[in-house]
Amino acid sequence: MITGPTFEEMLHPQKMNPAIRSEAIAALDADPLNPLNLYNITWRDPQNQVYHIVLPRELTGVEAQIVVIYGKRFPSGSHKVGAAYSVLLEEQLLGEVDPAVHTLVWPSTGNYGIGGAFIGCRMEYDSIVVLPEEMSQERFDRISSYGARIIRTAGSESNVKEIYDEVKRLRGSDPKIRVLNQFEVMGNYRFHYYVTGNTLVELAAELKDAGIGAGRISAFVSAMGSAGTIAAGDRLKQVWPEHKIVGLEPIQCPTLYNNGYGAHEIQGIGDKHVTWIHNVFNMDALMAIDDLDALNGLRVLWEEKGREALTRRFGLEESAVAALADNLGISGVCNIIGAIKTAKFYKMNGQDVIVTVATDAMERYLSVMANMRTAQGALDEAGATAIVDGVYHRAGSDWIMEGERAARERWHNLKYYTWVEQQGKTVAELDAQRDPDWWLGHQERVIEIDKRLLAQRGAR
Predict the structure, then answer these.
(1) Number of helical (H) and strand (E) elements in the chain, helices listed first
(2) Which of 158, 182, 206 is the last residue of a domain?
(3) Which of 123, 167, 364, 447 has the fewest CB neighbours in a 10 Å radius?
């Protein structure tokens, strides 16, 4: 059976077999469907530098340094492929799935499904991606190009209940179906805790050497979809106990903020429930972001007049604007807005580094941007200036809830309605998550999984 890197090799790709690493790097652009691309699942480039952008203060308007790590250069164009690989690798090593026998089902609202289609088909599994019919066309095209089948469910980003209903039907229809649920399976958590989290620990030191920050990360900001990415904060808080973990969700679907619900346009986040893998007891603040702000914040980078305003009126370098336009998607802009709010709320200064994530890139939202321009007309300089001022510079302290004890209890209790009432978990399993040792135990399984993979390699 086909496998790829260990967790340690994803964290430190220089530890891979040099020949395999070299062939994988060559395949990333030249042969993107080659299974060798499994060895490109890492936050580091061919020179072992972390893919990141330090945001210009002319854009953020704050003294704190805001750094974005971006996922465009992962296979499939999103770091979600790392979670998909880790989930499947663990199941395969434990003997739960076999490509000669099983069909994999990947429940998703987009990027995890794309990653699952890429990983599943490269590892020679029949794969089905279940996602809402109103997601961007680019998502469906990418999934099909990787060889997976698609089942479209009703609704948009926040309609996860409909996905779960379809997955339940599929599971009952065929004993060969195996569901790899990103919202539940701890391989997703482990990838981000170990690989993303430790990458950021090392990035802090590298930034300090470059004159940015004091060698620590003051806050990690991440919107929740599956709540996999935000697990990186659990690792950062172990290194720096005063570190702040800030979660984001859409104003239009404020599930954790006030038990709210609704449809929204920030694809990849705000799925109208609290996921099983989200360690809410570690979250220091919750902030809600307007989906229109996220869309407009991306639009100003997409349209020519927007980019001109950023350089001529606000003083950004053309290279900085090009990097942002190339590497940000809607949720990435949402995360940047959240990072700016974090800097202002906690009154952070120039020695503070706030890190956030761009899960995917503009290429996934060209149709969304084109639809906005058709509906609203092309941006002019005045409109672009208003967006920069209103979305980025005026991001404030509204829609913020601190993670006090009562709030964390409420966030945890919301898991009951999805996971116990609908998905078959027990109250005892839910209560076990209150114990920090429960999370530590899952973190420590990284060592076990790596040992299993290395043993399998040695037996070949």
Answers:
(1) 21, 11
(2) 182
(3) 447
